[in-house]
Structures are given as structure tokens and as C-alpha cells.
Amino acid sequence: MILDDFLEYNPNGLYCKYGDFYLDPQRPVQTSVISHAHADHAVPGHTEVYCTEGTAELMKLRYGKNAGKAFNIAVYKLSFTIGGVAITFIPAGHILGSAQVVMEYRGIRYLYTGDYKIQTDSTCEPLEWVKTNVLITETTFARPGIIHPDPVAEIKKLNDIKINILLGAYALGKSQRLIRMINDHAPQKTILVHHRIMPINTLYQKAGFELGKYQIYSRKLMKAQQEYVYIVPPFTFDSYYYATGVKRLFASGWKNLQVNQEDTLFISDHADWNDILEAVKNTEPSEVWTLHGDGTALRKHFGDRIFVKLLN
């Protein structure tokens, strides 16, 4: 029997009382299971952290000695137990080390996706499907009108821009994906990288994900028009609002982050509407629980066929 209260929110975040642990808690807790290292899922200060090696290395890079007191490294597809709940990490295809969390308790399987991506990305472990009784899915883009374009077609747009490009991107995950894609699909470009992104690149390469050619940014280089693409994190991108001699682009699935109407770059690391439907098809749940967004459109879509519960 599916337990309706298997997961519930409290002030610390999403809690499993049957195992006495949290999934991606928003405050420091005793026992945390972390799906991936983005700051909205991985905060510092937990006593016990269960995560993949990639997530642990990224958290330690970002948070230093405050990352967590004890890291328990989980290997994909090898189960372990917390408080009577059997847990298995499955690749989520989102960023380096990202995982879906399979939780099995009293013969019922609950699959927490974390953030996930179906689209091909050679800079992280590819998404894998498992069957489940309950699918707990993010709903960042869970509306029928939101369909992500082909990322390769999007990145090829850079080939038509002959002046230098200032390219905004999140430092972790998106920047590394863009570097690889530009090398593959716009190889005449010279990639410059902000210094905050360089240590993350090093961890990706240490994990065996080759990004291709890039070099650290220098002000002198960008003074010449050599089809440079300078990749910067959001805070730096915003500070270059009045930059001249460059085309400003921001790589995101969010329409409001596109900085001009003529040159958009819709590249997302989240599931769109069709991807979520694909996830339901491949995991075959009898119930879908939604979080990190709005699940009302999914509830309307499935009607009486699948029970949809909105966790937030």
C-alpha cells in the first residue's frame, strides 16, 4: 500500500519520517540525501550527507569545511539503507553527479527525480529510467505550452554571430555543457571562461568528462574581435549590462532570462512538458507527486487515469 505521508514538507524541507531523513533539505539537518549540488538542493551544514561522489566534490568545492560533517558516498545502482528505507541512486542527467533517489519501503517504490534532463548531455551521467509505484517529479516547466527546442540547433545559432559574445550561464552544469557544445558545434569560436567557473571545470575533467578547448578570460583578449565567447556567471553578466562590442546572450530555458528578442538561446537542463510525460510513460507509476513548480496542469492532463498529488 502506498503511504500518503511517506514524504511531507516541514520547515527544514522534504522529510521522510519512515527513514528519518530529508531529501534536498533547505536547512542543515541530521541526515540528508542530496540529489545534486545546485545550491537550491544542496545547502551546507548537514551532519550526515548521502550523495554521489560528484555531488560531494562539488559541495566541498563550494562550501569548504562547512560542506557537511560526514559524507557517505553512494555509487549509482548500489543500494543502502537509512532507517529501514532502502535507497538507490540512479543517474538523473542533470549535472555532474546528479541522481534520482529510489526509495523502497514495505514493498512500495517511491522515485524522487530531483532535477532531471532527458536531452543528450555529454558532460554528465545520462538519465536512466526505473519502474516505480510513485513518481515524485519536479515540475519546473510542467505546462503544455513549454517545449524546449533542440539544444544543438540553439547552440549553432552562435555560428551566425561574428562579433564577440558575452554568454551568461550558471557556473555549475550549464557552463560546462555549453563549453562542450560550442567545441562540438561552433568549433571556430574561442571560448573564454570566468575564473569562478574554472575550478568546476577541473572537477568535471577529473571525473572523466572532457570539455574541449577553453582558456581563462583576460581583458586584453576581448578587446579584439576574434569570435570570442566569454562565458560568465549571472552576477558578472549583469554587471556587463552596458558592454559594447559584444552580443549579450543568456543560456536558459526561461523566457524572462533571454536578454534580447533577436538572439535567444533556449538551452535548459530541466524537463519540459513532453519530457515529464515521457518520464511518466517510462516509469509507469500509479501515482505522481509533484514539487518544485506547479503540478496542476499534470493533474488536469491525467484526470482519473493517474492520481496526481501536489506536494507543494
Summarize the structure in short.
This protein is α/β, with parallel strands linked by helices.
Gross morphology: globular
Give me the Rg, rounded. Answer: 20 Å
**Number of strand segments:** 18
**CATH fold-level topology of the largest domain:** Metallo-beta-lactamase, Chain A
Number of domains: 2
What is the CATH architecture descriptor of the largest domain?
4-Layer Sandwich
CATH class of the largest domain: Alpha Beta
Poorly predicted spans: none
Q: Quick one: CATH superfamily of the largest domain?
A: Ribonuclease Z/Hydroxyacylglutathione hydrolase-like
Q: Could you say which structural class the secondary elements and strand pairing correspond to?
A: alpha/beta
Please estimate the helix content.
10-25%
Count of helix runs: 8
Kindly report how far apart the N and C termini lie: 22 Å
Strand order of the largest sheet: 7-8-9-10-11-17-18
Q: What does this molecule look like?
A:
The structure is a single chain. With 312 residues, this protein is α/β, with parallel strands linked by helices. It folds into two domains: 8-145 and 270-310, Ribonuclease Z/Hydroxyacylglutathione hydrolase-like (Metallo-beta-lactamase, Chain A), CATH 3.60.15.10; 151-257, Metallo-hydrolase/oxidoreductase (Rossmann fold, 3-Layer(aba) Sandwich), CATH 3.40.50.10710. The protein is built from eight helices and 18 strands. It has a seven-stranded mixed sheet with strand order 7-8-9-10-11-17-18, covered by helices on one side. α1 runs antiparallel to α4. The longest helix is centred in the middle third of the chain and has 12 residues, at 174-185. It is globular and about 65 Å long.
